[in-house]
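Renewal narrative, Specific Aim 1. Our central claim is that a sequence can be written position by position from structural information alone. The example that follows is taken directly from our test logs and has not been curated for this report. It begins with the structure tokens describing the chain, in the order in which they were read.
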């Protein structure tokens, strides 16, 4: 049986491919990152089953389902959703989808569910009989991922749960926060590289996971636009309580999401379309104290900051952190000026400006010009908020081509 996978998040597509590979009766026909590509590939590849994200870009999962179901011989369609509420479930049903699963569904629950929906599945008939005998429940052997029916036992190969390997003393401890379906896969993938020591948590478990794992880097992806405000709250709380943790937010490629991420205090942003190898590079970069963003994303941050830079940078008690002249230098940095350009603008020597920049680095506890910009942007965002989120609202309310910055934003006082 041929499967077409559709999701705009590249690592999640990799997870789905590894998941399908564990079912010998299924094979990957192709993959797509948006609805229009799905429609084209369904016509060309003629898959038996489409496994598709509900919030797929360009048409969306519901509209894409309606279009491919209008074909004379349509494939089966299963929609996957991060939110998975009743309204989405109804929309999926109305569109003609054959199944609807939450992205938080575990692998051992997904296997029998897909085999029931899939056409021509050798297990389908026995599963249906089993369901009628047991009130709709499917019994799964957790140890082997076997699907047990009253007629037979059909087993997939045992899933590798990523048993801990011996970690190097200098491996990067990574906390993966998001939906279980792909944080589990990402954790397994990272464990194969001894440079990383991953752990996983959903939004409700962040506080406990930070205490247990003591991560160097947290990678956060709420998985749904409806959860983005909670995602930002988690970042703010991590930055306030654990400033030593570097934070990366995985996001859709939308300007406002990039701004929100950096305003919340993230050290890096990564598009969902990037590969696992790019994610690894991002983790290594922010662990070294660098900021990870594409040049376009950084340009957006700088342009926004020019109109939003606070008059003075202050500490928690409201006391100014910098002198007026140092604040003038910060504004020049935010404008993207070099030391020479700042010197000409302020009628100072280049040597004096360089000394100001070094003192600014030391006062703010940063090591690059871009970090000065992000520090100022974060404080501008804090000034706009009336109250900070409580610990409960942060850690318990949630229910569920990039490159390191370089070029003109140097990592020293030059």
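The sequence written for that structure reads:
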């Amino acid at each position: 049986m041929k499967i077409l996978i559709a999701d705009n998040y590249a690592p999640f597509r990799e997870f789905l491919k590894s998941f399908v590979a564990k079912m010998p009766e299924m094979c990957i026909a192709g993959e797509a990152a948006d609805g229009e590509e799905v429609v084209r590939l369904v016509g060309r590849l003629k898959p038996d089953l489409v496994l598709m994200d509900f919030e797929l870009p360009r048409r969306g999962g519901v509209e894409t389902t309606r279009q491919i179901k209008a074909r004379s011989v349509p494939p089966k369609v299963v929609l996957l959703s991060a939110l998975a509420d009743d309204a989405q479930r109804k929309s999926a049903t109305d569109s003609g989808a054959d199944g609807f699963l939450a992205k938080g569904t575990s692998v051992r629950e997904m296997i029998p569910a897909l085999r029931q929906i899939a056409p021509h599945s050798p297990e389908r008939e026995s599963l249906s009989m089993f369901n009628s005998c047991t009130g709709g429940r499917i019994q799964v052997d957790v140890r082997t991922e076997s699907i047990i029916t009253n007629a037979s036992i059909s087993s997939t190969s045992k899933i590798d749960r990523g048993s801990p390997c011996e970690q190097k003393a200098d491996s990067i401890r990574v906390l993966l926060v998001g939906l279980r379906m792909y944080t589990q896969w990402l954790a397994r993938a990272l464990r194969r590289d001894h440079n990383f020591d991953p752990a996983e948590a959903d939004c409700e478990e962040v506080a406990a996971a930070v205490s247990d794992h003591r991560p160097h880097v947290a990678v956060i992806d709420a998985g749904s636009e409806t959860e983005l405000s909670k995602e930002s709250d988690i970042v703010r709380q991590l930055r306030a309580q654990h400033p030593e943790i570097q934070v990366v937010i995985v996001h859709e490629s939308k300007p406002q999401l990039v701004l929100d991420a950096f305003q919340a205090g993230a050290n890096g942003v990564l598009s969902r379309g990037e590969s696992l190898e790019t994610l690894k590079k991002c983790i290594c970069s922010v662990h070294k104290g660098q900021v990870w963003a594409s040049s376009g994303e950084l340009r957006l941050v700088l342009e926004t900051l020019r109109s939003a830079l606070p008059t003075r940078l202050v500490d928690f008690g409201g006391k100014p952190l910098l002198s007026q002249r140092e604040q003038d230098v910060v504004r020049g940095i935010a404008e993207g000026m070099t030391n020479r350009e700042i010197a000409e603008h302020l009628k100072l020597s280049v040597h004096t400006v360089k000394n100001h920049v070094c003192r600014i680095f030391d006062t703010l506890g940063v090591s690059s010009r871009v970090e000065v910009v992000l520090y100022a942007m974060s404080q501008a965002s804090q000034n706009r908020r009336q109250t900070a989120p409580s610990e409960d609202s942060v850690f318990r309310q949630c229910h569920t081509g990039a490159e390191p910055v370089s070029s003109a934003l140097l990592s020293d006082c030059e």
